[in-house]
Amino acid sequence: MLLGISPGPTRPHRYQPLTGGFHGEEEEEEEEEDGNILGPADETGFFVVKQRNRVGPHAAVHQGSGHLGIIRFLALFATLLGCWFIVQTYFERGGRSISLRSWLGEAGSVRQLPQNKCGNQQSCPTKHFAFKIISGAANVVGPSICFNDEVLMSNVKNNIGRGLNIALVNGTSGKLLKTASFDMYSGDVKQLETFLQEIKDGTVILVATYDDAATKMNGKTRKLFSELGSSYINHLGFRDNWVFLGAKGLQGKSPFEQHIKNDQKTNKYDGWPELLEIEGCAPRKQD
Description:
The chain is an alpha+beta fold. It has helices at residues 57-92, 100-104, 189-197, 219-227; strands spanning 14-16, 21-23, 30-31, 36-41, 47-51, 128-134, 144-147, 150-153, 163-170, 176-182, 203-210, 241-247, 257-260, 277-283. The chain starts with 13 loop residues before the first strand and ends with a strand.
């Protein structure tokens, strides 16, 4: 032999669980510790070295590490791509803030529904004015009056007061004419009488109560409100809540009115009923 390699002592048979069989030194090929296989000598006398494919748990670990490396590479690539996209878009828009809607495009954005005038649930037909009247809540939260999408009286406008809060509007143009509040607990009711008597034909009146609106109310003022279209004015009592829309020259009674009694058994607040809210579409006065 040209190489001084002699076979070692015969090793016992051993079981290979992944290949499912036994083998020993009597097989043609001999295993080295480095994982190569020494085959039989060729015609020149040299042994042929064959590469063995490892099959076993260690090989599985190496394969799993390869897959994990690919996943990490893809994740890093996606992160870098995303950063590049953000920076590129930022500089293209001159440093302005970018919303998700601008990235996704207008087609993917949620379309906002148009808001009705005065925040009403329904829109009004042509030749009608949208309105909303909210009474006060106890003696804490003041009333609010909106007409034709314009807030005429509210806490924010600082033009409300205890008692009756009244706005007068031109029934043809919808323009505000006058606002006033009358203290009906300790004020002078004569001022209210004069105010109501001076209302001209075709004028729309909107009324909201706050706290107490009936202590100073007399028969004359109740009659004047009744002529403006009120149905509940004769039932208005101490700390009752009342909202009303009427008009000077109205034929019959107004459909836009609500009233709730001050009743200790049903009051929502201590000593006051719950607030009232009414909304709708008032027809424009035709010349």
